[in-house]
Amino acid sequence: MKKDFISIHDLTTYEFHEIMDLTKRMKKNPSKFRKVLRDKILAMIFQKPSLRTRMTFEVGMLQLGGEAVYLAPSDIQMGSREGVRDIGKNMERWVDGIMIRTFGHNIILELAESTKVPVINALTDLFHPCQALADFFTLVEKKGSSAGLKLAYVGDGNNVCHSLMLAAARAGTKMAIATPPGYEPKPEVVEWAKEDGKETGFELKITNDPVEAVDGADAVYTDVWASMGQEAEKEARGKIFLPYQVNMELFSKAKPEAYFMHCLPAHRGEEVTDEVIDSANSIVYDQAENRLHVQKVIMMLLMGKK
Ligand code: CP
Ligand code: NVA
Questions:
Q1: Which domain holds residue 31?
Q2: Measuring CA to CA, which of 9, 14, 90, 92 is 20 to 30 A from 211?
């Protein structure tokens, strides 16, 4: 693997499947991996809030024999108190890896370029790759494989949507995305997905019609309508995205056994109704659990003995 884990586009199809296989092994037999990161330290830089990401990276490091240091947005004030490059150059003297959750994707690229230690993307405005790996691992656990499945994504063509698309390309999944006009995934990410999925059986349909996307799907995925950093747009988006709410009427267009998926946190009553997220078809807490398992594998691969 490359030094850093910044996007699923950076993984080969082989590496993507290797991560899935290793996660299965590690989840089944965690005690075998209890010391693989002994004496290693991960710095966790958060410029946005988090429950799952913070918990799973910190717990993951502890379970692998290492430790994690949490840096809240106010601690280092990246970009205002000190530039990204200087932070990277300091960090490499103390820690074995850096996890960062930030805004502009250029920030993580600059950090990775400026530091010798591995950098892991824990969400930028463009991507959320650890989330997509956990989601595809969850599908593999439930269905045996994610190849050939129809995954519908309804809502904003955002960071989560982008990473799911790139994972679907590697996995050979048929993805259908429905967004309001003007909120489609970015064309350059669509191009990367098409390139990465050329030989895997990947199919991609992008539409503005949620029913068309959900029709016959094996899983229906949604995310918040206003992501972190878009709080000022929340009200306007609330009106624009209303026809894209995953409620029972829309969800019933998918296969009867279809899964409901969400990266969480969910804004219940907005992008998803209680009835859907609390239904027997919902696997949102399995997705959250699997963040831990896939990230342990990523950290082992990047920070462990080569
Ligand atoms: N899904 C996810 O990344 O959750 P947090 O924002 O709570 O970390
Ligand atoms: N799209 C959301 C995902 C949160 C895990 C955000 O960026 O806020």
A1: 8-127+289-303
A2: 9
| Shared domain check, 230 and 139 | yes
User: How far apart are the CA of 158 and the centre of ligand 1, in A?
Assistant: 14
Ligand 1, atom 6, lies closest to the CA of 50
Ligand 1 atom with minimal separation from the 48 CA: 6
Torsion of CA 50, 52, 55, 60, to 10 degrees: -130
Do the domain assignments include residue 120?
A: yes
Structural contact between residues 288 and 264, judged by C-beta atoms closer than 8 angstroms:
yes
Ligand 1 centroid vs 128 CA: distance in angstroms? 9
Instruction: Tell me if 3 is assigned to some domain.
Output: no
pLDDT digits (tens, 9 = 90+) for 28-54: 999 999 999 999 999 999 999 999 999
DSSP H/E element including 163: helix 159-171
What's the CATH number where 50 sits? Answer: 3.40.50.1370
- Enumerate residues lining ligand 1, CB below 6 A: 50-53, 123, 131, 263-265
Alpha carbon dihedral 286, 291, 293, 296, in 10-degree steps, equals -170
Q: Are residues 50 and 136 in the same domain?
A: no
Do residues 247 and 95 touch, judged by C-beta distance below 8 A? no
Q: Which H or E run contains 260?
A: strand 259-262
Within-domain flag for 1:
no
